[in-house]
């Protein structure tokens, strides 16, 4: 079935597209210096290659290339424009293709487009840490697109500039790869079947890049004499002398990291409290004042977690009402208040009230900080930036463990009052410093402050990436406005549709599974666990201090080098499988070497401690960072705040349960308690493997395709019709 084309008068015929021979004749392209020529002069290619500035959906050629996402179900930029122009039948055919991997290509009919075919290829999301791999993937995009076009008898093909939009591939590097691969293909035997290859650009900036580089790969006849004194090719695509200076990009990267790291002081407070309370409740001066009743120990932990639950619940409303930036100081004020009460407590009631208020603070911050970092972060490093939440939790845990270890030698109530009171300092710093950080641009768009949102997006991208910033802003603006027009802000929205129910299941599930790892049993009651392995007194606190340093080191390595490469799902499966192993071994050791048994094996004790340390390492390269990243990135903007609130409430509800039950269970059922975590993580592994999607590298606006939402082609149409002269919606992802 062919969809009618309403805009036939705007169709651009092949004859109207100038070849580069004509561009040389008109001096729009100039002969390159001799030392810049990369390939031999081939006169026939001057009539085979074209550069065209305009709308790729208007070209009457055999095939146009769509810079698609992996779902092939449409998106922003070129992808959305092609789907809108082709009509709904293109989406119907794309549904039958079962997606496409990065670097691969698939072909469909053109339907309402002037072109006979659409070649869909998935470009890489650029990362400077993986430049070589990304170059290979982008090269594959052009090669596979050319091959599949020829296989389907296409005589001409038009390419957009793949991956240079929101996927952030540097335009000069991407252009070099495109020209090199097309030149190689044209020089091959199969390349002779193509009559025309058209490079399509939209902006003046992109056109100027192509104009400067085309002569190096397709030099004019006049350059033949010059070429005799030069070499022909540069094997290091994307790394030549014309690569853009990295200074501006490095400064923007540093700025983004600084924002995420500073706001994550809120996560530091979470980690510090988790670590310090494990030390405080074992100190002699603390026990002399409050006693050693297991139910009181459990209450000190669980009342805090209960406060966290209600703090996270209220933070959802506060984030929508006041914004992410203004909600963080609310958490800081609660932290200062709660810490003051805990440090000054003279009885159990005052201590517990202080714990509840402190919990309210951490509930607000633990929900808001990952949300803020998610909405500030560029897609290609979002895993790293949101992963800083877990890094700062771990750093807070380290500081707390060593503060606790040192404070035990103070022979007064200061030994426990000082560690609890020290939390006031980072809370005060965050309260003051957050005032100087930008608002979330997505929240600004939600409340109608569009110009402010645009300024923030430009601020985050920098002067060197104006067009990328423009593309991201337009995609963000259009998606948020469309969502706001069709959806309410009720909690029932979280399960109103199958895709939303799946999002909620994944987000809540990953946080609940995070508690099932057993990591907080170690964090809260580590010294008690070491006692069950025969390590007592100050040695238990020393081991806890060393333990606290292991996880953050592993976490930093993971979020810096691995998370944005391997994605979210594989680390979660690895973590769940690892905890099955570590807790099985730990249970076996405690069962066969009970505390107080003179025949207990010292080697078994060391093995048990090793299992606890390995649990921390495995947590830090799986659920630790991934749970915060995944739970905060899966929701659409208009439900992200309330969704993250519900998710964080689930986290703290199970955290409270763990905190209350653990001391009693370790006292009464001993090693059998560890077998509970073996069973839970086995179930987690199966659920994650079967039901969790992969979200690595997706923009927040592209999650619709991941979870099966329908593409809104009217949205793309409206965006297209209202675009300005720059028309950056046509930048390929």
TrEMBL record:
<feature type="transmembrane region" description="Helical">
    <location>
        <begin position="505"/>
        <end position="525"/>
    </location>
</feature>
<feature type="transmembrane region" description="Helical">
    <location>
        <begin position="673"/>
        <end position="693"/>
    </location>
</feature>
<feature type="transmembrane region" description="Helical">
    <location>
        <begin position="611"/>
        <end position="630"/>
    </location>
</feature>
<dbReference type="InterPro" id="IPR036259">
    <property type="entry name" value="MFS_trans_sf"/>
</dbReference>
<dbReference type="InterPro" id="IPR050360">
    <property type="entry name" value="MFS_Sugar_Transporters"/>
</dbReference>
<dbReference type="GO" id="GO:0005351">
    <property type="term" value="F:carbohydrate:proton symporter activity"/>
</dbReference>
<dbReference type="InterPro" id="IPR005828">
    <property type="entry name" value="MFS_sugar_transport-like"/>
</dbReference>
<feature type="transmembrane region" description="Helical">
    <location>
        <begin position="351"/>
        <end position="372"/>
    </location>
</feature>
<feature type="region of interest" description="Disordered">
    <location>
        <begin position="223"/>
        <end position="244"/>
    </location>
</feature>
<feature type="transmembrane region" description="Helical">
    <location>
        <begin position="384"/>
        <end position="404"/>
    </location>
</feature>
<dbReference type="GO" id="GO:0016020">
    <property type="term" value="C:membrane"/>
</dbReference>
<dbReference type="InterPro" id="IPR020846">
    <property type="entry name" value="MFS_dom"/>
</dbReference>
<dbReference type="InterPro" id="IPR005829">
    <property type="entry name" value="Sugar_transporter_CS"/>
</dbReference>
<feature type="transmembrane region" description="Helical">
    <location>
        <begin position="295"/>
        <end position="315"/>
    </location>
</feature>
<keyword id="KW-0762">Sugar transport</keyword>
<dbReference type="Pfam" id="PF00083">
    <property type="entry name" value="Sugar_tr"/>
</dbReference>
<keyword id="KW-0812">Transmembrane</keyword>
<keyword id="KW-0813">Transport</keyword>
<feature type="transmembrane region" description="Helical">
    <location>
        <begin position="545"/>
        <end position="563"/>
    </location>
</feature>
<dbReference type="InterPro" id="IPR003663">
    <property type="entry name" value="Sugar/inositol_transpt"/>
</dbReference>
<dbReference type="InterPro" id="IPR043472">
    <property type="entry name" value="Macro_dom-like"/>
</dbReference>
<dbReference type="Pfam" id="PF01661">
    <property type="entry name" value="Macro"/>
</dbReference>
<dbReference type="InterPro" id="IPR002589">
    <property type="entry name" value="Macro_dom"/>
</dbReference>
<comment type="similarity">
    <text>Belongs to the major facilitator superfamily. Sugar transporter (TC 2.A.1.1) family.</text>
</comment>
<feature type="domain" description="Major facilitator superfamily (MFS) profile">
    <location>
        <begin position="259"/>
        <end position="696"/>
    </location>
</feature>
<keyword id="KW-0472">Membrane</keyword>
<feature type="domain" description="Macro">
    <location>
        <begin position="36"/>
        <end position="218"/>
    </location>
</feature>
<keyword id="KW-1133">Transmembrane helix</keyword>
<feature type="transmembrane region" description="Helical">
    <location>
        <begin position="642"/>
        <end position="661"/>
    </location>
</feature>
<protein>
    <submittedName>
        <fullName>High-affinity glucose transporter</fullName>
    </submittedName>
</protein>
<feature type="transmembrane region" description="Helical">
    <location>
        <begin position="253"/>
        <end position="283"/>
    </location>
</feature>
<feature type="transmembrane region" description="Helical">
    <location>
        <begin position="572"/>
        <end position="591"/>
    </location>
</feature>
